[in-house]
Amino acid sequence: MDNVYTRSKDIALIEILDRVLDKGVVISGDIVISVADVDLIYVGLKVLLSSVETMNRLKWAEVPCPESPGNL
Amino acid sequence: MNLIYLYCVTDKIPQLKEERDRIYFLRHKGLYAIVRKVPEDEFSEEKLQKNFNNMEWLKIKAYIHEKIIEGVMKDSSSVVPFRLATLFKNEKSLTEMLEKHSEELRRNLKDLEEMEEWGVKGYCDIERLKYLFEIEDMEILETDKKINSSSAGKAFFLRKKREELLNEVINKKINEVSQECLDRLGQHCLRIRLNRLLPEEATGRKDEMILNSAFLVKKNKVKTFIKVVETFKTQSGNRGFCFEYTGPWPPYNFCWQNDKSQTDHG
Asked: Among A60, B43, B68, B128, which is most exposed with the fewest C-beta within 10 angstroms?
């Protein structure tokens, strides 16, 4: 699998969070963060997804640039 | 002040190429812990509580975490991945952890040799499935006929009955399809782990998640495994079902602490 190293950037965030947040070895290291409320994080994820959508929309929409002196 | 962030443990000297990112390894009795020094003012307990609620932060850290473990995976036959933000105060306390759990880690690494984790998620377009039952299911069609020829009062109860019936057949169908998927894939893996279903907010999809599963597959069986998923995907697709697979993953789902909820397959 030569492409395993570069693959992660193409994978959906949800696939990664589904694993790294509540799976893998759970050792109580010296610093303990509770991720028991993973559902809350997923709710936050929706906010992120929609903000990305908004960003894309803004990027593609043809809006006149307010800073341009011609629009004043 | 810095903390030690632990990504994964392996039993072969890792070939690390990212020295500029301050990633290095600690060796203890034949185990190699892949770590990085991270600033305390970003990763202290208090800061983490805040940062875990910051989706942008979480997103970046999750991708880095995954990327680093994948990098180690590329050169090692076996890796035990740790959960996001597993942190130690210093190298000494990390070494103590390695000492305390060296047996489990070694056993786990041996079990995972020449293995890959693959994920399969199943989704169902419930509306489509409902529609199919409404036009095909004999019992539903019979009930529809009865409703049409009944008095208003009787039709009301029949409609209720029809709704219950529809839910029942849909649930039955979803269970059957999921079970069929697990049965077929179970023949080509060593272990299966079922995970909880993710809500629509998380998947961002319109269809509903009906299966969230992880499989531990021998490397030389991966091609067959994928072929079986592809076939199943095609066969179930026209009924409103959708199955997606991803991998190879670090074996997050097959670490020793997760053993209780796994199903073994010979």
From this structure: A60
